[in-house]
Structures are given as structure tokens and as C-alpha cells.
Amino acid sequence: MKIGFIGTGVMGSAMIKNLLKADFAVTVYNRTKEHAQAVIAAGATWANSPAEVASQSDVVITMVGFPKDVKGVYFGSKGIFKRVHAGQVLVDMTTSSPKLAQQIFVEGKKRGVEVLDAPVSGGDVGAQNATLTVMVGGLESTYQKMQPVFSVVGQSITYFGAAGSGQNAKMANQIMIAGTMTGMSEMLVYAKAANLDLEQVIKTVDNGGGQNWSLANYGPRVLKGDYRPGFYAKHFLKDLKIALDVADEMELNLPATELAKRLYDRMVNGAGLGNESTDGLVNIYHSWREDD
Amino acid sequence: MKIGFIGTGVMGSAMIKNLLKADFAVTVYNRTKEHAQAVIAAGATWANSPAEVASQSDVVITMVGFPKDVKGVYFGSKGIFKRVHAGQVLVDMTTSSPKLAQQIFVEGKKRGVEVLDAPVSGGDVGAQNATLTVMVGGLESTYQKMQPVFSVVGQSITYFGAAGSGQNAKMANQIMIAGTMTGMSEMLVYAKAANLDLEQVIKTVDNGGGQNWSLANYGPRVLKGDYRPGFYAKHFLKDLKIALDVADEMELNLPATELAKRLYDRMVNGAGLGNESTDGLVNIYHSWREDD
Prior knowledge:
The structure is a homodimer. Chain A is α/β, with parallel strands linked by helices.
């Protein structure tokens, strides 16, 4: 099975290396070629466009940044759909819009091509260690067919239903994380202002009903002032925007998620901290910064 | 060491039973005497007022509902301070205001009485199994002296500093939980509207970066429509109000916690669901109720 992989960022590169280790032949394309050097050195073959990748592959995986990038990679003038061939499978692993996932699925169907949306969670560490959680939407038969590929990059792989369902599951995941991140930030801001020992607070809270992954993993980093991504705040903001767009279409009012989006917007666009990790949210709280 | 215990609600009764099992003599008072029958049957002695409890005890523990109840129990006409004697220790384990904790401490000091604030987390199950987390404020020497008592009711006991610090640590804990509870509620509302399998969503999210205690413990309950407390929504609303009052005094703006308070206010005062568990928050979202 020849695999094409578009997008050699932090996540994509780590996944490509795992595919190469599992003896898949991998052809790659990336908008910025320099960022593909590491995977080329590891054995991947370069192609000059998404279309060229598609022409040479049985399976094309995409892992890019924003929905507009996904759109370009699939529907652009040198996009995947210019060179697809019947029987191929296309898998978008970018966290992107459920609606766009459905559009790609429909376009694929017209051309005899199977399409999955399969966003992941677990971050760069999960990508490196092949312990990603993969949330899959599309036909169940396509999902079954792709198991040998998914199992090389991830650990927990779940089929959620029709096209877009993988993206919706990922959105649900991000809505949960919006809660843990805002809660953690305000907890730390409060505890610091109250002159509590923050290490003790984290330890105590993480030992009871407030226990959560974000606190255990990001809490100690925040205390060190370490805001290196990890997971870019600008990407999390994108995810929350998608989630709220979908919620809006479903006529849902999600005020806590909406507020989290406004806070991340303040961090990314107000404070210019979009390239920091999501746990840098604490820095939009004045008292946190002032006393540091 | 003779212990007085004021407040024989769900939490207090479970703690009293553990103290009795550890062979402490316990004198109890409760506003509604019927609710003390179980601990009296288990070996506790009844007293007719907080003052009477105080007159007969070396250590007085209070575990009541709201800060106004704490105030009454300590400063009321039949309150503890009417009958304290030098050398006694008073421990308020109610989740209450840090400022009130400081007032009780100061009043105690005047009378040669040591005072701790020592709110707990871990809920009814933690109280029954003596696995509570205890957050202590006051003099460190008093905290050391009370270790034999705390270790009978709790598992993780942490000293946080001067009077009020235990309450502030508890507030930090509740701010964190405000995040996990609002995040979980909106995640479930979104996932349901998107026609995802909610059990699969909980399992997947709880397996990754969104993992948290609330989701693991309350998520499955919500799917069953089980909103029995657990932890009363009305008490959680009280906690959030205290936290935000303190934040206000510290000139902190905590918008996510403020929003959580408004949502719980809608649940408790708007929808009249204050006697349900905190995870019943999901019911203030129209789409959740409508489709049920």
C-alpha cells in the first residue's frame, strides 16, 4: 500500500516516521519544502504538489493547519482531486470543519474515491510515540480498510459514524479541553493572588474532584513559565471557532465555549501569543503577569 | 480528646461515624435533631446547642451549610463562643468564606482558643471511606496538633498557611471544577446534537487530553439521567459566589468562573434544580432537555 502524506509539520512528520518504520512507502508534499527534509532523510519521497502525491498513492493522508489549507489541498488548482483515481482512499487527519469533511466525502464519492475524516488528539508526544487517539468519520467499510494504517500512528481508534462525525467527536474533545484550560488558568490566578503555594495547590486539586489531564501535564509547566508548544494556542482558537460555527448551525448556545473562544482570541490576536502553548492562556490575566 | 461535632448532614454524619470508630468520644448538635439520630445510634451524645457542645469538648468541629450558618454556630446567642474555654481547638470544615475564617481565628485568639479552617473535598463517598482531601489554614502548630483527628476523616491533609488559606485552597479547587463541569456539560450537549454515540464520546475524550475526574465519574451518570446528589448544585453555587467575592476583593477578573456561577444560578434559582447534583447543569441547555 503506497501512502501519500501531505503536511510535514510537527504532527505530520512524527506520523510519517512511524509509517516509514512500519515499512510503508511514503510520498510527501509540504507547502514549505524545508520542513520536509527530516522525513525525506528518513526515507520519504518528495512530490511537487498534492496532485502529484495523489497520482502516486493508494492512500492519501492530509495533516495541515486550517480548514482553508484543507480546502486548497483537496480542491485547489494543484489539489488532490485533480489527480485522484477510483479505488483510492483519502484521509483528512487535520482538525477541520465537519461540513468541509462532508464536502470532500461527496466529491470523493462522485469520483469513486473513499474519504474519511480522522482527526487526532494526543499532541506531538502522542504522534511521536504512536499513541494518538483517532476519531473517524465516513463509511465503516473504509474505516475497517484503513485500520492497518491507523494502528501504526495511533492507539485508540474509534469509528463515530458518517462523514464529519470524526470532526464532531474532535470538537467535543476540544470543548471539554476549553473547560479544563479556562478552569486551570483561573484557579492558578486565584491561588497566586491568595498567596497560596501553587505547587501544593496543583498537587491537592489534582488529587480530588478537580483532577484533570491539563492540570497534571500543563500545571507544572505554567509554574516554570514554560509556554513552548505543545499545542499552539492559534490552532486551539481555530478549533473553538469551528466548534462554535457548528453549534450555531445546530442552534446550540454554548456560553462557556464561547467565552473560552473570546479568551483565546484575546491571547492569540490581542496579546500576539498564538505561537505559544494553550497553557499560556494564564498570561492574559493581568495579575498573573504583573507579579511575575 | 473529647470531640464536639456540629452539623450532622451527609458529610458530617459520615465523618462522625469514622471518629466514633476510632474511639473518640463525640458530642453532637444539629439544627434538625432528627438528622442526628443515626450518629446518636452509633454512639454519639446529643447536646442542645453549639454552646453546650463547646462546653463539653476539647475540640469542636463544625460542618454546616452556608457561611451564614457558620456565623450563627460560632457567634450566635447559643453559639460556640458563648462557652469556649482557653486551650480548646475549633475547626470549621464547612466550605465557607476565607474572611469569616479569619474573623473566627481572631475571635478565638482573644479568648485563648486555637482556630483552623479545614474545608474538605471528596464528597459523600470520600467522607464515608475517610478518603477526604483536607485543606488547612491557621497556625501550623494547631494543624500539627489536629493531625490525629484529620487522619481519621481524610487521606490527603495539606497545610496551606495562615487563617483563611484552607478556604482559599478549597476555592481554587472549586474554580477548577467549574471548568470541568461547564466543559463536560457543553461537550455532551454538542455531541448529542451532532448525533454522536455519547458513551463512545465520553470514553474517547476521557482517554486523551480532555480526561478529567468529573467526566469519568459524572459523565456516565448524566447519560443515565441520574442527577441525585452527590454534591448539591446549590452548595456549589454558594462556593462559586464566595470565590468570586474573594476574587473581587483581590481585584481579579475571572470571567470563566463568573460565567459558571451564572449558569449554576440559572440551574439553582432559574430552573429550581438546586437539590440536584452539580452534573445536572446539562439540563439548563434547551436541546438536552427537549430531545430527552
